[in-house]
# Entry
Amino acid sequence: MKKNILFKDAYLINDDLQDSLRGNPLRNEGPRLIQNFSGIYIVAFRMLSKEKTNDLVYSYIYYNPLFFVCLLAFFASKGKNSLTFNEHGNYLTIFDLLSLYEDQDYYNYDTVLSYYGTNNLSLAKDKKLPFLYSEALDLIYKLILVCDINIMSNLIDLACKRLYYDFINDILQDFDSFKLFNLNLKKYGDRDIKDHNILKGCIFVVRQIDPLIKSLEDKGYTISQGIQSWRGQINSANSLLNCIDVDFRQSLYNHNQYHYKIGNIHKDALLTKDKFSFRRVHMALGNIRWYSTKRDLNM
# Structure
């Protein structure tokens, strides 16, 4: 299986992230929990039911902003050789890039965006003509879209209302293949995509969740993290985010190993696999709650 190593041309783990990964994990058994803390949020939305399309539930993973460029490279280089693809298939990644990049001096940001941005545009331009909705969406699920919060919420709105043509139009309208897709639409219609749930194929990357939630609420949506009695159950959004997280942390490890083997980094920068563990990345660097499993025998 071909490994995802994020980026071959440069080592993306900068000095601050390198030192943070190498450092001792912080013990965090207190009641603290990230709530709209500035950083990077990977968000997945789901409709509560087919009947209540204006009721949305969401799940998310939080990452320290030090991971920004590595996450950008990870989503841009995602492929079929991954746990996420095997379990969930391809997905469209929508970045609120201006918000994430604001007031930050991210290492190698321009290099990564330029390299992968060119490849993504080439993919869309060189793709054989998508005659049907399913083929157009198959192309979209391989791309990264960079936009602001308002466009994000508009795309979510179109997806919930199953306005497939408008959703595809907003993303592919500048490409020649979309013009030919329009010509074939009159002949084939939407018979190959009835009741398709676009939201299941989308991931949203934002710096803060609240502005996106507010934008959706302004459109008349009710947003929550699910019915209280269901929150302890695993669901498709949680499963997708968990697979992405496992693949991302493995890719970080592969990236570090690769650049050591080709001589881009010194042996002192080589990191063991435990430095990319859930405990290290999320407990130590993410400040999420540590649920204690200690038992009090005197209770």
